[in-house]
Amino acid sequence: MPLLSNLPALRLTLAYALHEPSSLLPHRTIATLLALPLPVGIVLPSLPGSEKKPTIKALVLDKDNTICPPETAVIHPAYRQKIEQIKSSPEFAGRPHSILIVSNTAGSTRSAEHEAEAKHLEAELGLPVLRQQPGRKKPLCGPDVLLYFREHGITENPAEIAFVGDRLATDVLVAREVGSWSIWCRDGWRDPVKPATDYRGLFAKAEGILERILRERLSRSAPLPVTPRHR
């Protein structure tokens, strides 16, 4: 989704870029969703003052350019298999509401197209899709995500949630906003048979450049999750 179609996200991203750029960095970078390590918690940074890894009880997955090619709801067999592996991981197995798809297309508005995409994904993957409140697309939908997991008895602790997606300005930033962990799919969605085909748009590629500058040239790293009331 072009960032200019989500002006609140653009304003929030610019504010962080100017005043707290490290918040745009992910806690973990992977090439694509297919490379997501399981269990998720063991690959995240250790908690302050100990070698203990975070406990992850809930996972948020992006759709466009993470689960599917951009602006489609087509599920490649390799990605379907990966989703099944995630669902059967000890962190999430037996808890059908512990994995939530949060998209700025599917389920993000009340349009027939977005609702049809959401229902298709739910039927194809057996995972719920968040129906976002009007004007609350990522990175502003964090409270709705927290409410979903709380109401379904998964967790009330944002630091037990990991967000996975291809965009710093939405997927990583919403995790920062609510005090959760972020995992960035650096290359977006790639066809395992034709991995050289790049589906990232202009803004996503610009984010990749920004990430490298912050991490490699400025030696910045992502701040650990902090709940909003403690910031």
Automatic annotation (TrEMBL):
Gene3D superfamilies attached to this UniProt entry: HAD superfamily/HAD-like
Database matches in InterPro entries: HAD-like_sf, HAD_sf, PGP_Pase, PGPP1/Gep4
Gene Ontology MF term list: phosphatidylglycerophosphatase activity
Protein name: HAD phosphatase, family IIIA
Species of provenance: Cyphellophora europaea (strain CBS 101466) (Phialophora europaea)
